[in-house]
Specification:
By secondary structure, this protein is an all-alpha fold. The protein has a single domain, classed as Arp2/3 complex 21 kDa subunit ARPC3 (Orthogonal Bundle). It is built from 7 helices and no strands. Helix 1 packs antiparallel against helix 2 and helix 6 runs antiparallel to helix 7. The protein is globular.
Amino acid sequence: MIQATPFPWSYNAIAVHIDNTSDGFGQNRRDDLLIDSMNRINKAKRASYLGLLTALAILCGYIESLIPFNFGIPGMKLGLCNVVILLVLLLFGWKEAALVSAARVVVIGFLFGNLFSIAYSMGGAMLSILVMAILIRTGKFHETGISAAGGAAHNIGQILVAYLVTPQLPLLWYLPILMIAGLITGILIGFAVWAVLLRIQGIVVQK
């Protein structure tokens, strides 16, 4: 898992500040203040990164809605925003990825869809995150394999939700086709994520 080093000035700057203002404090109290200050900085940085990534995921969804990719298969999309979701999953964790994905689905759904499209997308997104999180936890899969499995799971989740809403057997006929499509697009997304990870190793991400 890629994790970058903290900013070099954070620890030293806080330590000097505490030394200058902690008249009479013992060493344990100084360490407590230092740890508390670092935790606050890390939380602020995490929040700012997640906010930016959420906005980026929504922007990718908006771009995808403006430029429809017609593959000749109903329900098939390239899934540009999955690049962002997988990055959040790898760098932050499944809870943050679920939060970003849910925010993206709701915003895009209200802007360009309806409650049914939100339900379909939410089912696919959550199943996809669950599958990818399990594969990441094993530590045995490359980003492309994780993304491919997530793409297939996303389409399975959408079909299952659609079948629960309108139980029609023909919906299940699309499942094998959409699974293959999800694998292909997932591999492409996985390569994109892998390329991005190689270039952001200097960014601070504290688990």
